[in-house]
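Hello, quick one for you while I still have it in my head. My current little project is about how a certain protein chain folds up. You're getting the sequence in one-letter code plus the fold written as tokens. Would you mind checking whether the tokens look sensible for this chain? Here's the protein in full, and shout if anything looks odd to you:
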Amino acid sequence: MDASTSSPQLLRRTNLRAVLEVLRTVPSATGTDLISATGLTRATVIAVCDDLIARGWARERESPRTEGQKGRPARRFEFNADAGHVLGIDVGIATVRVLVANLSGAVVGGTEMRFPRHGGAPEQRRQVLIAAVDDALAAAAVSSAAVLCVGMGIAARVTGDGAVAPGQDVAPMFDLGLRQEFGAGRGWPLLVENDAKLAALAERWRGVGAGEKDLAVILAGERLGSGIIESGRLLHGASGGTGGMGALELVSGVGNEDGIAKLARLWGSAALKDGHDGGIRALVGPSTNRASARLVFEAAAAGDPVAGDILDRIARRIARVVALVSSFFDPKLIVIGGAVAASATALLPVMTGELARYVSEPPRLAVSDMGKMLVPTGAVRLALDYVEAHMLELVPEVRRRG
């Protein structure tokens, strides 16, 4: 393209992006505020704001008149957070969770559905996921046309281009042909990412790790997995394997990827089969030898010594995993998340003491307070990052309707 025609277009886009980035970070701004923040001239700022309003990304709000003010109040502009929406989807083995959020990240709706028993066949899972998406949109009163991007987390390794990495036993549970359904069928860009990596995005955005540039999140429910953020950047590796826990079978005192919930359930059930007749049995009842993780934690909190010993063993085992993550990536903060995160607070004292044995300068340990919304919140953040990077190429719903 001729430079004489491309330069004005490039300058215009640069100015649009500069003003838009300011508006996204403040409740509202006057022309003077935007001049100060961008260094652009008043004429340019006003022209850019009018352009953003016409595109649907900004809107003008009423400026209050101050006492004694003469003339018209200064024009005031704000980012139009309702110009579009994004979806954040967490696809687990047993359930799918969907969040609908506007462009400021405010959640306006969502839903949760269970897959068929034992996960179901791929087509069954696909239909449940699509139904969950449609229900979430209906609950939020958001049209399909308003969706600008979809972020999706899966419990599998994902390559840098968003594909399910080959050679995984669980791949058929997650490779569901949704790019055709969402992309070609509905016009939605679909971004797929590993669930632990999305958990790290969520914690840095809105969790206990908010604003931290160097942190790790360990999902520790049924299986272990971690997401690593270094200098504010989510790490992937050559094939998306950064943070994977497959090598734990080589680690003495660990041996596999079993997470806190699974270990508590297995070891609690084993104690019942061995004749334990204390607090776990009282909670479980006489008719079964299967203990849930929740009841093992409850029994330990009530003072049952066998349950307490189980939690101690779990804490010491997970501390070795934390030590590995700390040694390899040196984060300032490691957050424990997943299905039993709230209960895992009971493990922190032992884990902290054990970690000091293995790491000379151990990171701070914390437990996520985001519960089951951790991964879908990270998926929302992933989708918002895409929208923010491509905003000037996307068409907001107000323009589509207009």
About this structure: DSSP finds 13 helices and 13 strands in the chain. The radius of gyration is 25 Å. Confidence is low (pLDDT under 50) at residues 1-5.
